[in-house]
Design a protein that fits this description.
Distance between the termini: 40 Å
Largest sheet: 7 strands, mixed
Mean pLDDT: 95
Shape: globular
Structural class: mainly beta
Radius of gyration: 14 Å
Low-confidence stretches: none
Length: 121
């Protein structure tokens, strides 16, 4: 019932910046929290950042990206963004946008198709 489409991935040099965007459509009224996950080759999917969608300004970040990544939202545009600064090669992964419903978990929610981020040394 919720559709998510990511954009903004690409190939950049270490130390560069990149901004990812996620557009939500469909039954967006059911969204409680939105966030970003990533999956590197041979690794499990990991949480990157999250934000409460419908109220407040509560955000959460993985320790590995604190101080470098910033999650933000624009409810009027139904978008969630991830500003990534000071990118490192270890940030290379497929980045997924996710939406969790009010009574559900991340795994029970909606997921985008992913966008590739590659950071070269």
């Amino acid at each position: 019932q919720v559709r998510l489409v990511e954009s903004g991935g690409g190939l950049v040099q270490a130390g560069a910046s990149l901004r990812l965007s996620c557009k939500a459509s469909g039954r967006t009224g059911s969204i409680y929290r939105m966030g970003w996950f990533r999956q590197a080759p041979g690794k499990e999917r990991e949480f990157v950042a999250g934000i409460v969608w419908n109220h407040g300004r509560v955000t959460d970040y993985a320790d590995s990206v604190k101080g470098r990544f910033t999650i933000s939202k624009n409810n009027a545009q139904n978008t969630v963004n991830l500003q990534m600064d000071g990118l490192k090669p270890e940030d290379t992964a497929i980045y997924y946008c996710a939406a969790a419903h009010r009574s559900g978990t991340w795994n029970d929610g909606a997921w985008g198709q992913g966008t590739q981020v590659t950071v070269s040394s």
